[in-house]
Every structure is written in C-alpha cells, then in structure tokens.
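Record type: monomer structure entry
Structure origin: computed from sequence
Chain ID: A
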Amino acid sequence: MAEATVFTATRSPSPKVALRVRGQAPPPPPTRSSVSKSRRLKTRQTRNNKLRISLGASSGPSSESYDTRRRAHGAKATTSESNERNKSRWLDVPRVSYHGVPGAFSSLAAKKLLPDCEPVACETLELVTASVTQWSSDIAILPIQNTLEGTLHDIQDRLVSSGLHIIGEVNIPIIHCLVALPHVEKTQVKRVLSHPSALAQCSTFLKEVDAVREAVYDTAYGAKVIKSESLEDTAAIASSEAAAKYGLKVLEKNIHDKERGENIQRYLILARDPAEYDESVSYKTSLVFTLDEGPGQLFKALSVFALRDMNITKIESRPLRANPILSTDEGTKQFNYIFYLDYLGHTSELKCKQAMRHLQEITPFFKVLGSYPSHG
C-alpha cells in the first residue's frame, strides 16, 4: 500500500493586522520561506484548476475555495523528511485513493479521469473513504454500477454514511484477461483467483476452463499473489495492465460473458467538499430518501420531479438495513425501503431547489449525495 501523508488538525491562529506608523522603516523584503510558500500556493491552485477541468468544470478564481477551506482546517504535514516529500506531492498532483492494489481497474479509472494523479492503494473500502476524510488524499474513486452485475450495494450504502460528496463520474470498459506465470499454459490451470464480481462476469468462460474459483478482494491482487508465490497451477482474472506490472502472461483476453452484452463499469468520484456550480456544464444529482407508509407515497415523491419536467435517469430501492420491517395501517408487515435516485440538474438551479424542498417535506429521510458533471 502506498505511503500516505499524515495530516493533523490544529486550530488556525487568529489573524493580526499590521499597522505601519508614519516615519517607520518599511517592512523587510519577503523571506525565502515566504516566497517558497507563495510558489506552493500557486502550484496548488494550478493543481485544483486541473482537477476541476477534468471533472467538467471551468477553471477560475472559485477554485481557491478548496485551499481556503483546507487552510481553515489547519492541516499540516508531519516534520519527518519523507512526509515533507509527500507534502510537496500533495501540492503538485491530486492524490486519488482507490480499493485494491496497483493494476486494479479502479486505479485505471483514476488514471483515465486524471492522467497526472497519484493513485493511493487501499486494502478496504473503509480506508478508501477514510483516506479522504483524514486528508491523506484529495479524492476517492469507487465503482458503483456494472452493466453485467448491476449496482454494488455495499458501496452504494457507504455513500450515505461516508460524509463525502459525489463530485464526478467516469465510465470505463472492463476487459478481463486470464493471466498466469510466463511458462504456464491454459491447460495447466487448476485454480482461478479474482474478485467475486469478476468471477461472476466470466462465469461462461470459467465453465470451459473447469478450474476451482477462489475469491480475493481485488482482481490485481490475484495477479500479485501468483507472482509473489510463484503459483504454477493458478491463473487470475485481471487487467492486462496488472499482468504487465507483475510480469505475467495473458493466456486469453476479453473473457467476460459476451452474451450478456458489453462490460462497462461506472465509477463515482468523492471529495470532502461538493462540486462547484458552473452554468455552462450539464449536471447530474444523486440523492436518497425513504417514504412513509401508505398508498401513493412513491407516486407523490416522483411527482415532485414530473411537475417540474425534470429527467430522472435512475431509481432503485432496497430494504433499509437499520429498520427493515414496517407495520402498515392494515396491521400487516412489509419491507421498509430506501430509494436511490439520480436526476439531471444541479441543486443550485431554481427548479431543483424547489423540488428538493418539496421532496424533503413529504419524506421522513432525505439526503443529497452530490451534484456533479454528467457524462452520459
């Protein structure tokens, strides 16, 4: 796992106003440290402009707000030499946390979104979001939907509780490869390692291979294990980039279940602060809500959007984990659902503001997860 910069929160000192008395000597010229600080701030502003442009927003003075908020938190690096180097990297390039090891599809998605970013590998989903909330990385990238397997519900639930904002999305094609040690042939494979979703997406191919399937927490991790342990009877389902990184051979490429269609994955980009609004950009908003018991409750909620000619691009529901059973007026019990909904528009737009106020009035729970540039 890549070493992350450790930040500690301190209280910002109160500002002081310097008064110059007439006849007093002028203030001394800026020191080398102050000039260096000015250069770092300019570098940071350039980095943030690149980040905003990559997410679909134009650059401008508003990009300074991120740095203003960060300085208000009083974040600072530790004094060790290695962390000072990490601090300079923080200022130069955005750090993007993802789940997995180098070569994972999430790291490829991060590079597609921000080619100059520094990916930060995390072993668990909790560490991916905690890396951002604890200032060890700028943003996080998480897969949310797949055209073959649908929504990743564990990650979807994490969006509600993470305290982060969705600021962007990116779709990438997933090209699964069967990879093994350079001298291993396909007929020698007795075991296949990969993430459970990848194993499910390649089920037809795996029936032909007739090998034991073993789940690991990341596709690229399976490739890493084969290399580190020199497993000669084992293959992994991973990206070709992972195969190249760990010195493995691609036995077969593009092995997903083609009869089920294209394999495309949607990723969401999360940050501490919401995306800034730009009138020239098309936006999408994601939110969650629950409903009271009774007839027509879902119809009333959706009417909030229909009455304002707002385009809903996704809606799905699942039982609410915290309170899964709901008692009805008829004395029966049924599942209590939470609804996930996407619509086109930004919460800063007038009709979206009105719709959000209206929806909040008729739902017991309501939360906007983020408004972000829409990419189809």
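Annotation 1: The radius of gyration is 25 Å.
Annotation 2: DSSP finds twelve helices and 19 strands in the chain.
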